[in-house]
Each structure stands twice: as C-alpha cells, then as structure tokens.
Amino acid sequence: MTPPMIYAILIPLMAFAVWRRVRGSFGRQPIRRHRMTGRIAVFAVIGLLLALGGLHNLRLLEGLLGGVLAGAVLGIVGLRLTRFERDASGADLYIPNAWIGSLLTVLLVARLAWRLLVAMPQLQDPAMTHSAPALGNSPLTLAIFGLMIGYYVCYFSGLLVHHRRFERAQAASPAG
Fold it and tell me: Is residue 154 scored above 90 in pLDDT?
C-alpha cells in the first residue's frame, strides 16, 4: 500500500474518531461500565505498544511518559469537575467538563495536522514514496498521545470508582 493510500484511509478514520470524541465531551453521558473498562484496556495496550516502540529512542519514551503523567493529573482535575446525575428513567449519567475534553481534542488534532503538513512534501516527491514518514516519530507527538492515554485511563478509572460511590450514596439516601 502506497503512502497516499494509507493517508486516504487514515484521515477519514481520524476524522471519525475526533467526531466521536467531541460528541462525548459535551452534555450528559450515560455510564457504561463495560465500555469504560474496555476503553481503559485499549488505552493501556496502546500506551504499552507506544512505549515498546519508543524504547529505541529515549527521547520518544520520555515524551510519552511525560504526557502520561500530565494526562493523569489532568484526569484527576477532570474527575473533580465531573457531575453525576440520574435521569427520569433512573439511568446514571455523568457530565464531563467540556473544556478539558475540548482542549485535548484540539491539541491532538492540531498536532496530527501539523505532522501531516510536514509529511506532505515527502509524499509529493516520487523518490520518497518507498518510505512513509512516521507520524509518531516525535517526542511532542508522543507526549500528546501520552496526555490522551494518561487522561482517559485515569478519568475512566476514576469515573468507575466515583460512580460506585454515587450508587451507594443514592441507595443510602431516603427516597423522596
């Protein structure tokens, strides 16, 4: 598969992922324990694979780990700003902080767009078509991926813990 074909497939997939992320950053979101647990596992595996890939270059690994730590701190802040509710049908909901979700999305999209702009001249040169430029071969890019990984692993883990506490508090409060 040639690099232009790879990007032709990759760009719509990234646009869909961004659209889903933006949709999940605003308004009431249902608590879906299995999906959250699955997302924690997926993000952990992606982080592990990126870390293994960064072992050949210590700067890449440092960028990833710094991003994960900063993301975990941001996840804790996000948890403190999240509210829990029950709707009329009794379903549990959470309301994430839209600013944090928006900031993470903008950072990721801006960094990926920049890396694609830098890679485009290499794609235009016929002599360079045999080697596709690596999008994740930058400490800054891996730091932003790490930020996303750290945030979502910490945030979803915290949501599951806080949701359990919310359920207990709702069960203990008098119905009225």
Answer: yes
CA atoms within 13 A on the CB side of 133: 19
Alpha-carbon torsion angle 19, 24, 30, 32, nearest 10: 80
Question: Where are the alpha helices (H) located in the chain, listed in sequence order?
Answer: 3-23, 33-53, 58-80, 98-124, 139-172
pTM: 0.77
Name the DSSP letter for residue 126: G
- Tallying the residues shown for the chain, one arrives at 176
Residue 129 phi/psi, 5-degree rounding, is: -70, -15
Residue 132, classed as helix, strand or coil, is coil
Q: What type of residue is 78?
A: G
Higher pLDDT, 119 or 58: 58
Q: What are 95-109's pLDDT values in tens digits?
A: 998 888 888 888 888
Cα dist. 29→43, 98, 138, 143, 172 in Å?
Answer: 20, 12, 34, 27, 23
Nearest to 132 by CA among 111, 143, 118, 146: 118
Question: What is the residue type of 82?
Answer: T
